[in-house]
Specification:
- The complex is a heterodimer of chains A (389) and B (409).
- Chain A has 389 residues and is an alpha+beta fold.
- Chain A is built from 9 helices and 20 strands.
- Chain A starts with 10 loop residues before the first helix and ends with a strand.
- By secondary structure, chain B is an all-alpha fold.
- Chain B has helices at residues 2-52, 56-60, 62-68, 79-95, 98-108, 112-125, 131-138, 145-153, 161-166, 187-218, 221-236, 239-250, 255-262, 276-300, 305-312, 317-345, 349-354, 362-371, 376-401, and strands spanning 169-171, 177-179.
- Chain B has a two-stranded antiparallel ribbon with strand order 1-2.
- The longest helix of chain B has 51 residues, at 2-52.
- Chain B is extended, with a radius of gyration of 30 Å.
- The model of chain B has no long low-confidence stretch (mean pLDDT 90).
- The chains are: A alpha+beta (389), B mainly alpha (409).
- Chains A and B meet through strand 6 and helix 3 of A and helix 15 and helix 16 of B.
Amino acid sequence: MVSSNRAKPSPDFANANRAVASAARSGDVETLVRFEDVRKSYDGIHFVVEGLDLAVKRGEFLTMLGPSGSGKTTTLMMLGGFERPTLGHIYLDGKPVERLPPEKRNIGFVFQNYALFPHMTVAENIAFPLRYRGVKGADAKGRVAKALDMVHLDRFGDRRPGQLSGGQQQRVALARALVFEPSLVLMDEPLGALDKQLRERMQIEIKHLQTKLGITMVYVTHDQSEALTMSDRIAVFHEGRVQQLADPVTLYNQPANRFVAEFIGENNILLCIVEIVANGFASLTAPGGARVLAVARPGVGAGQRALLSIRPEQLKLARVDDPTTHNRLKGTIDEVFFLGDHVRLSVKIGGEHSLLARIPAPEARVFHVGEVVELSCASTDTHLLEREP
Amino acid sequence: MSDVADRVNVSLAVRRAARPARRAAFTLALPLILFLAVVFVLPIGLLLKTAIANPEARAVLPQTYIALADWDGAGAPDEKVFAALAADLKIVQKERTAAGLGRRLNYEAPGMRSVTLAAARLAVKLEAGPYKPAFIEADPKWGTTDLWAAIKRNASPITPYYLLTALDLRQGADNSISRVEPDQAIFLGVLGRTLMVAATVTLLTLILGYPVAYGLTIALASVGRIMMLMVLLPLWTSLLVRTTAWVVLLQTDGIINNALLALGLTAHRLQLIFTRFGTVAAMTHIQLPFTILPIYSVMRAIPPAQLRAGRSLGASPFSAFWRIYAPQTVPGVMAGCLMTFILSLGYYITPALVGGPTDQMVSNFISVYINRDLNWGLASALGVVLLSLTLGIYYLFLRIAGVDKIRLG
């Protein structure tokens, strides 16, 4: 089970994201970037990126999410022009760009450690891309001032990057990548070096800027809560392949496989035996013998072993007067953690298997280790993952 | 009031708290400080003293100088002075110190050596005065103002003579300072040559070393290790061995000439050794690591993402390097060049073995004056000039570049 600090996106943001995504879908859907069977290998034996097919829509915020070594940064570097695909094609605005050097791509890039130029002032840093686009004099000055204003650093133009805090440097890097109005902005874990509070503020700020300016952004991170907060769509990378490409809500609620289910948020994964599949639901035997009714999955049939995913927040304390007999999991409390707004329970069911449950504070009571509890969950909130051989 | 007192107490407490650490640091550095005081500061002090010390004439002509005190400085002094001189010279002859006196006076006026030796021999023979006619009769020079002015100038325990000579200046009979005759002026030329060679070597090491430093920075770890070894290897070999290797390479029937002849690039053997070219080539080779290493250590600290950022913003590879990377390497370039330039100013063995007579640098002259001519005063004065020059250049560098612009890593 993968632990996380934040499991769910804040509701208003999820809504905003959905609105933008649906607008993009209903309007003239245009693809800005398209990866076509892109593969990348450094040694000719191992592929860092394998068979990548991915389309980035105009105006969307797409996040490439994955653990380190999953191929997400390599993909970003190929898009930025710093790495060349071993095989396959990358189209930018319909034109293949594999051989185009970075300076000819007109893509804004925000690097992990900002890569500000320490020997130039903040204003000079931001004016740097303008010099190569023939923007000079008062025009350049005006655009630098506007960019500084946009990131709330209007009084810092004469400072050197070394005199700024991490968050301020981050804003300068952002202003520098946006000042020349690129069609596409790439970001490589830009908030990794900031502390948690600042990181969350910057996430919202970047998202606001992206929506306001209507720019297309491709963002790389290994932080799933960051990805959920900011993205219109998320591509989950693992071992060089995209495991799932979906909007945050779908990704969270309907993970495509075990990796996604465990990587995004916390999850209980149970190995079950499928008894019957009917009406879009499957009846399973969970470890410990409990019968569970879950949303079925194509390709998983009766008699097979399959993985079941239940989010910890979907598990509730079973009511004694509830007559239903399925989806009730009985076990002994193993560990109890009080976290203010909720209580985390680790409940041992059937031998080695334990379930993680989040009981919201209003429904919680005093729990004791060793106490026997019964947990329940709705059938619509339990999902079958892939078949286990 | 108590607030102020409180603040004072706190600052005192802070200083008290820092004291053990300060004391420990000082104690750890103490052996080195003592070592440097004995082998570095003291010899430099003595060097400075030798450059202006003037003991020879004063020590052996005490009566003469007392008598000479009221000489008017025009024409020969009166009989009283000659009598004192005769008395002093008798002792000089007896104690065999005439040669030292002669050599010292000879610096002031050529020919004084033989005049002094003859006078000392004469003084022993003279039983009684008048001495003045006897001296002038033996050598008419004893009647000239110039000779007595030269003797009088040596009355002082310190002399500007050596320092002036080291700068091709001289003091006339009337104590005015003027340039020496062009055919005697050598030291300014030598200093200029020293500066020129050092500057050429510095420039060459920079041109050759900068790309190597960059190569070291971007090379794969495995390749970089080998490159680094090749840069450092010369540093681990003795200077004399490397210089001798250059002699082997450069000599007229050496490897380079043999190769050029075999390839048919030249019809006859080239004069490579004992030339400025040979000196500069050998010195450049020896100095390369000193220029490369500071540049490399500064380059290594520049994140490679900076160049990528530059290119993503629209700069071509060259433009990104020139506008983003190169300015950030300036502190390393400054440190490397300063080190090579200052070390080159003091080169001795390499020009001596590889260079010709017209390639000798200040250090060679210092060595000649110490070992062959036994003129320690002039050797020290040249040393002082070299030291001042070095400090002056160091100061200029700091002023022009700024202390923060010179960084070793």
